[in-house]
Amino acid sequence: MKALTLKLKTDLTQRVDCSPLTPDKLAGKDVADIAAMELVSGRLTLPVEELFDISGDDVNNIRFENSSAKLDHIGHAMSQGRITIEGDAGAYLGQFMTGGNIEITGNTFIYSGCEMKGGQIKINGNAGDFVGAARSGYKNGMTGGTIIVTGNTGARTGDHMRRGMILIEGDAGEYCGSRMISGTIAVLGDVGKHLGYAMKRGTILLPKMPQHGITANFNDCGSHTLAFLPLMFASFKKLDSKFANVEGFSRVQRYAGDVGGIGMGEILVKI
């Protein structure tokens, strides 16, 4: 079987909700059924065949080609299979996903991995604001799974994050780890201002002191040798990421906060 390939025919003028196009929701459907499915685009509903050229038939392995930043909700609530995206993707990539893999060779818009529970998303490019975060008005961001970003992320990465792991090979924007409840964020590059704002628990791991430093809302707890860090780095070896080649370390400067709240989060900086 060949991957089910959806090649975007033309530039879009309106955003398109691609949430029906997942391995779970296409299970048992043939190409004719898929072609006739309707997608919401602005105020219209359009058949899939009007937007995409369709080839292949393996619904457990879906490819989006010539993709656009106006294709929203790709991989919505998927629990199995694989989605590959050649080009950019819109908002809410992998929202609510519980399993499977999504890989994109391009950039993503806001809320990538929003409230995801499992699986893996790899973004070979930059990601917008609110990676792994909760939607506005909701209290739980991602609760499981792994997000890998080879480029940079926007503001409020991991906002309200509750579990899981976000690995950023580039830089992270302002308010990284804001209102974080649990989980791990690791950044190989620099981070913006207000790191760990209103953080409750969880870990932010950095190989160097941020350009803007650590805010006064985090107490310097001194230098520590943490035995769990080599185990964490060993777990990275299986990933297709720069993190697989990072030389592990256990000696860090530990900062605890945000003391404006319960103050049980930690920022660990290599020393």
From TrEMBL:
One of its GO terms (biological process) is methanogenesis. Transmembrane segments: none annotated. Gene3D superfamilies: Glutamate synthase, alpha subunit, C-terminal domain (2.160.20.60). InterPro entries: Formylmethanofuran_DH_suC, Glu_synth_asu_C, Glu_synth_asu_C_sf. It comes from the Bacteria. One of its GO terms (molecular function) is formylmethanofuran dehydrogenase activity. Pfam families: GXGXG (PF01493). Residues 78-207 form the Glutamate synthase alpha subunit C-terminal domain. This is Formylmethanofuran dehydrogenase. It comes from Methylophaga nitratireducenticrescens.
